[in-house]
TrEMBL record:
The family this protein is said to belong to: Belongs to the cytochrome c oxidase subunit 5A family.
PANTHER family (alphabetical): CYTOCHROME C OXIDASE POLYPEPTIDE, CYTOCHROME C OXIDASE SUBUNIT 5A, MITOCHONDRIAL
Record-given protein name: Cytochrome c oxidase subunit 5A, mitochondrial
InterPro entries named in the record: Cyt_c_oxidase_su5A/6 (IPR003204), Cyt_c_oxidase_su5A/6_sf (IPR036545)
Subunit structure: Component of the cytochrome c oxidase (complex IV, CIV), a multisubunit enzyme composed of a catalytic core of 3 subunits and several supernumerary subunits. The complex exists as a monomer or a dimer and forms supercomplexes (SCs) in the inner mitochondrial membrane with ubiquinol-cytochrome c oxidoreductase (cytochrome b-c1 complex, complex III, CIII).
Main location, first listed in the record: mitochondrion
Gene Ontology molecular function: metal ion binding
Keyword check for Cell inner membrane: no
Keyword field contains Transit peptide: yes
Length: 130
């Protein structure tokens, strides 16, 4: 049934959605109920902003009665592993690298200055190089 539902370009009637949710509850299959709601939401397609709120309004009493949350209520509408834009990551990485390189080069310059002036201690000579 799930395969047939996904291959058709039809949004089910709220009565059908209610019947499927009750069947899922009868089987104690909470994940299937959520997956079904996600599939209905995907079936709304480009009209999601208009159709999905109407469907939720129609099936909300059944959802409350069965204790099934909507995908938005449990955070399924936001991606779990959201990644930043690649350019933002590159900018941040290059900024951190530049700051690290500047701090290393400042430490290196001061150590070289102390070595040349003869004021370098044992710690300057044995310091690990980065």
């Amino acid at each position: 049934m799930h395969f047939l539902f996904q291959t058709r370009d039809a949004i089910p009637d709220p009565n059908i959605i209610t019947a499927v949710l009750k069947a899922c509850r009868h089987q104690n299959d909470f994940p299937l109920a959520l997956r079904f709601l996600e599939t209905v939401q995907l079936k709304c397609g480009p009209h999601k902003k208009v159709v999905w709120p109407w469907l939720v309004q129609q099936i909300k009493p059944t959802l409350d009665d069965l204790g099934v949350p909507t995908p938005e209520e449990i955070g399924y509408d936001k991606p779990e592993l959201y990644l930043e834009d690649v350019m933002d990551m590159l900018t941040a990485a290059s900024h951190h690298y530049c700051c690290f390189a500047l701090s290393v080069s400042e430490n290196h310059r001061s150590s070289l200055h102390r070595l040349r002036s003869g004021t370098a201690g044992k710690a300057d000579l044995c310091a690990p190089r980065l």
